[in-house]
Amino acid sequence: MSELQLKSQRFRREREADWRRLEALVTKAEKRSAAALSDTDILAMPVLYRSTLSALSVARATSLDQALIGYLESLSARAYFFVYGARSTPLEQLGAFFARDWPAGVRGLWRETLLALLITALGAGVAWGLIAADADWFYAFVDPALAADRDPTASAAALRATLYHEEGSEGLSFFSTYLFTHNASVALTAFALGFALGVPTIILLLMNGAMLGAMLHVFFSKGVGFEFGGWLLIHGVTELFAIILAGAAGLRIGWAVAFPGDHSRLEALSGAGRGAGAAMMGVVIMLMLAGLLEGFGRQLIGNDLVRYGIAAATALVWGLYFYAPRPARRAR
Asked: 2 or 308, which is more confident?
C-alpha cells in the first residue's frame, strides 16, 4: 500500500465520525425538515460543517484521493443550505411577501408614488386643456385605432353605447389577455427605463396621463362623464395604481443613479432596486387582477352604481393593504 493511501486512510479514520454525523443530520433535514432536528442537533451542525470544510481544505492541499475530496465537497454543499440558507419553506416565503415585503416596498416609495401621480395628473390636465381649445389635439394623444368610436366626432348616444356592449366569453377572455399585455408593457417599461435618470419614466407617465385626459374630455364634453367614470374605474383603480407604482419604482432607480450620495452608483442602484423590485413583483399581480376586471367584470356588469361600488371597494382594499399601520415584528 502506498504512502498516500495510508495517509488518506488515517485522515479518514480520525475524522469520519464527524462526517457521518453531519451526513445523518443533513439527510434527516432533507427528508423531513429542519424542524425535525433537536436543539442539540441544530447547535452541532455549524460546528460539524466548519470541521468538514477544514477537512476538505486539508484534503485538497495534500492531494488525497479524489473520491474522498468529492465526498467532502458534496457533503459541504448539502450542509451549507441548512447552515446559511433560508430557514423557511417556499410557502412561508410567499406568505412573507404578501404579508410584509410587498406592502413595505410600496410604502417605501410613497414620495415617488405621489410624484408619479402628480405627473400623470399633469399629463391629463394638459391634454384636457388642449383638446378643449382644439378637438384635433385628441388624435395627438390617442391612437385612432385604439379610440375606435370614442372620439370627439361621436355623439353622446354613440359614446354611451360603447360603455354597455356585450361580448361572448371567448371575446372577453381575448380582450382581457390583450389589455393585460398592453398595461404590463407600459408598467414594466416605466420601471425599466428608470435607470436613464428617470427621464423616460416621466415622459411615459405624462403620455399615459395625456391619453387618459383626452378620453375623459371626450365623454365629459358630451354629458356622459358619469357613465364613463364607472366604466373606467371598475378596473382603472387597480390598473392606474399599478402603472403609477411602476413609475414610482422607475423614479426611485433614476434618483439612485443621478444622486448616489456617499455610495457608489452600483451600491445605490442595488439598494434602490431591493425595495423597488418587491413593489414591481406586486405590480404584475395587480395588472393581472386589473386585466380580469377589465375583460370580465367591466363588460359583464352594466349597472353604473355597481361599477362605482366595485371601484370604491378596490380603492379601499389597496389603501388598507399598503398603507394601514402594521404591528412591529417581534425579534426572534
From this structure: 308
